[in-house]
Specification:
With 419 residues, this protein is mainly beta. It folds into 2 domains: 185 residues, Sandwich (Immunoglobulin-like), CATH 2.60.40; 174 residues, no CATH class. The strands form 8 sheets. A 4-stranded antiparallel β-sheet has the order 3-2-6-29, with no helix packed on it. Strands 7-28-27-26 form a 4-stranded antiparallel β-sheet, with no helix packed on it. Strand 4 and strand 5 form a beta hairpin. The longest helix is centred in the C-terminal third of the chain and has 4 residues. It starts with 36 loop residues before the first strand and ends with a strand.
Amino acid sequence: MTFRPTILAALLALALPALSQKIEEPAAPPPPQQDGVRITFAPPPMEGTLSVGVYNGEGKLIRTLHKEATKKDFTVGVNGFITTWDGKDDAGIAQPPGKYGVRGWMVGDLGVEGVAYHGNDWMKADDSPRVIRAVGVKNVGQDEIHIWLEHVRGDQLEFSWSMKKEGVELPVVDAIAIAEGGKLQVRKSGEPPIYVALADDEKAITATVGFGNTVWAIMETAIGREVRAYSSSGEFLRRLSYAKDEPAPQQLAASMWSETIFLIEEGGGEQRIRALALGAAPLPEGEKKSTWKVIYLKRILASAKFEEIAAKLGRPKPFVPEAEIKISSKPNPLAENNAKSELTVRIATAPGGAVLEAADGLPLIHLSDTPGLKWAVMAREGDAITVLQGDGALVEEFKISKQSNVRSFDAGEYELKAK
């Protein structure tokens, strides 16, 4: 998956000794004078990244000074880390003079781990193609069936199956099927075209010829679409019917080597590619019903919104998202009475993936780096927090097993003076 389970393993240690302890290393020279408010604070003694925010008198976050910052993002002084606030909010608007609080969180290893993929059979591993949908299927020559797939990048991928049977001579296939203007006709070299008899409310959508000169066609009927097989002389042979809520056939191709068809089917928030082989079981005389065996299946479920796929995730219990989740942080030994803090978190999407935020909007850490996310949801399940995210092509599931591996810190109150 495109997760970052080692998000924090390679980060630099940020812990500073308590202010009363002696600093053995010589202090770095003070940073050059800048306009704005100079802020100094001692980070909690824990490996991780820092998120620092500026809050107004009502306790509202007005400026994110740092997110996922490391030691190199600060000047290190005798009394801790040094940074500067220019007196503006996140929109670049200068704030009125007054007192402002600066505080934040250090985020350690959260134990982010990929769990599963949902809703896209093409995605089996990190390096699997991120397919959005199938766009075409057809015979290429006499030996292969090709399927064209649209990738999330916008380009197309091509997959092929070889139908050739080694040591077997290709059966004669010399008919052509044409679906045009709703009519279905069959042509053979040197013979006049044969128009297949259809009911007044039926029309042929597309057609092809396969093994034994069998004509395969997708038909539109009064009750929906179905697949039919005809002989090269136009005689009806069999049909493949569809339930009302089942994905309906859109495109098809047929093997020249066996009674096998390939279909692209869509409907009900699902697209699937199926290969069906005609069963060999004998049928009673006059019986037109056929037995089909699915020999290949790939499904893509609609997931542009969580609600579209919520009931199709295949999880033991329904996933019920929580807008916010409260967690208890690790104590900060630099804080008064070694205090713990309760942190309320929420999930958000950003251009670079899913982000875990404090409830006040302070971004804490990126949980994934999947671009183009359309949604992300979370819920507490046992001792872990489960996160689902979707980009419209795939739903990824992962969990946060060490969500309490965070520490709060207070960088103090500062006065923004009038210029």
